Amino acid sequence: MQPTINRLVPHGLVPLIVVLASVCALVVTTLGLLFAGEHTGTAVDDYVHWSVYRQFVGERGLLQAMLTPTDPVLLVVVIGLIVMGAVALRRPRLAVLAVAGPVLSAVFSSAVLKPAFGRTINNGSLAFPSGHTATMVAVLTVLVLATFATRTTVLVLTAAGALIVAVIGATALVGMKYHYITDTVGGACVAIATVLTVALVIDRAAGRRTVKNAARDEEPVTSGTR
Q1: N or C: where does the chain have the smaller number of CB atoms within 10 Å of the terminal CB?
Q2: What is the pLDDT of residues 60-105, one digit of tens each?
Q3: Is the peptide bond before 129 cis (omega within 30 degrees of 0)?
Q4: Is 190 domain-assigned?
């Protein structure tokens, strides 16, 4: 049997993770259908944008700095570090998730869902769901999953830190009016649903392979007659 640390999602948390991924997928679908083809934000979108704008009047440089967590180059570097750490700790499932989770999140949000829903912002730029938010939150979700096998304190601190970073990045995207706040919510939900689903698939596939290998190793060896 594989040690628990090799699993991305502990057995006891599988039902909760399935529910969470399903809820996130439902949120994305619902919001996407509500905003399909829209070219303006909702009252909530406008309220949040102007609230952020008033807080950062004359601080455009600060907002740009707050966009750092969404920078693709930085996210690629972080993914690379996670992969190297996973390899060093002999956690191949985590290494696969660190690459597959963010990549699939980016593809689903930008290449599949944005054209499908067709919501736009500014001069017709596709907006929902936010691809920058999806990729950022996907990487943060991988980091949180990586701490599932550690102490509860580490998990809580990692989750809290991830939430703060996500809020900072989303605030900057809204303040710069690259996205509506509902776009960032949709992007975050895409990331969480995708990464959690991929983690469950990896665990299931690896588990089946482990069972097959164990069964093969236990097969009796018959010696030929001489």
Answers
A1: C
A2: 889 999 999 999 999 999 999 999 999 999 999 999 999 999 999 9
A3: yes
A4: yes
